[in-house]
Amino acid sequence: xxxxxxxxxxxxxxxxxxxxxxxxxxxxxxxxxxxxxxxxxxxxxxxxxxxxxxxxxxxxxxxxxxxxxxxxxxxxxxxxxxxxxxxxxxxxxxxxxxxxxxxxxxxxxxxxxxxxxxxxxxxxxxxxxxxxxxxxxxxxxxxxxxxxxxxxxxxxxxxxxxxxxxxxxxxxxxxxxxxxxxxxxxxxxxxxxxxxxxxxxxxxxxxxxxxxxxxxxxxxxxxxxxxxxxxxxxxxxxxxxxxxxxxxxxxxxxxxxxxxxxxxxxxxxxxxxxxxxxxxxxxxxxxxxxxxxxxxxxxxxxxxxxxxxxxxxxxxxxxxxxxxxxxxxxxxxxxxxxxxxxxxxxxxxxxxxxxxxxxxxxxxxxxxxxxxxxxxxxxxxxxxxxxxxxxxxxxxxxxxxxxxxxxxxxxxxxxxxxxxxxxxxxxxxxxxxxxxxxxxxxxxxxxxxxxxxxxxxxxxxxxxxxxxxxxxxxxxxxxxxxxx
Length: 484
Prior knowledge:
- With about 475 residues, this protein is α/β, with parallel strands linked by helices.
- It folds into 2 domains: about 1-250 and about 465-480, Rossmann fold, CATH 3.40.50; about 270-460, Glycogen Phosphorylase B (Rossmann fold, 3-Layer(aba) Sandwich), CATH 3.40.50.
- Helix content is about 40%, strand content about 15%.
- The protein has 20 helices and 15 strands.
- It has helices spanning about 20-25, 25-35, 50-55, 90-95, 105-125, 140-150, 175-180, 200-210, 215-220, 225-230, 235-240, 275-290, 315-320, 340-350, 365-370, 390-395, 405-410, 430-445, 450-460, 465-480, and strands at about 1-5, 40-45, 55-65, 70-80, 85-90, 130-135, 160-165, 210-215, 245, 300-305, 330-335, 355-360, 375-380, 400, 425.
- A 9-stranded mixed sheet has the order 3-4-5-2-1-6-7-8-9, sandwiched between helices. The protein has a 6-stranded parallel sheet with strand order 12-11-10-13-14-15, with helices on both faces.
- α6 (about 140-150) packs across α8 (about 200-210) and α12 crosses α15.
- It is elongated and about 75 Å long.
């Protein structure tokens, strides 16, 4: 089985968010599971990718057709953990530095060119994939173009397509003129898309894909509703009725996230040696300058997040102020929207003995927060999947999370399932709802044995990529049994 992954980012080469984690883990897990699978990955050669570090070698040059004249694509290749990884460069990619540009027009050209060059690479290699697996709006045109090529080009006649939506609101900019310049028509009425969506990358991808997946089962259901569908809910409901939309939960790379072997931690531990974990809590307080609490049963709350409205960061300050009469301390790590950063600074100024707001990206400190915080706050307004709650449980930090998307799929509420609960869920993205969940968690935290039982259950939950990869393999095989 030949499987081609096309994506904007993949760890360790280039990463901004969860998409990079997925594409940096899933292809390799698939190859481990399926002995006869030929899995390959195609990425843009972003300006920040270190060619020497990753051993990139020039492979080929060819052209991508454009109305104003052919555009040269240069291809570089390396091998990483046993799989071939291709990097595509060219004028549109070089013109938009970084993984994502603040200029939507530059990104539109960059990723349109990249998507079409990825298909041209397959033809150059004379390697027709059985499955093309594309991710988010950046690669949507690879799926859309392949659907057009498939009708008259025998090379792609048997290729099936999967398009994974990691975050539906990020659809890409409308590109009617760009489609025309690259020789592609906008979608028509027969696509089933609303008229406004017929030249926007992500809708084009979902319209052309044989199957649409999302990164959690709950998010697949949520995007079929007006609250989360962003105008595409009716189309997505039809796809679900046709069994062409499903959610497969993301996994966690257990080699990367392992408290027994994490060099960033002060003390390493496991579910069997959980009594060692409080050493990390004490070390974290010392590192960020929080005093030892004077009140008994004072939980240390952690936040590791992009500071955005979507992540519900604006709820945190109001929530903590509303429970100022209760014992707690908080360590907040992240960067993002300036007004949210300013609000966290104000919170620290109001509670200098209880709050530390560290406004930077710091992977090592994030790991020490996962390993030292008693609970992790996850008030996201929506969360397609989320990895933070999985990491938190893996490290023994109990999640306190909004019951949405992947958070609802991964966290079992203690009060509903006291014998299997791994955290605390709250039903509405509101400060009052979050505050009540913190109070519930604090009540359990006061009983060391009950709290440790919650921690151990979370640490023993299996969120490894193997489960998700098996589901994708079944999906691929199912698709290949169907006629195009």
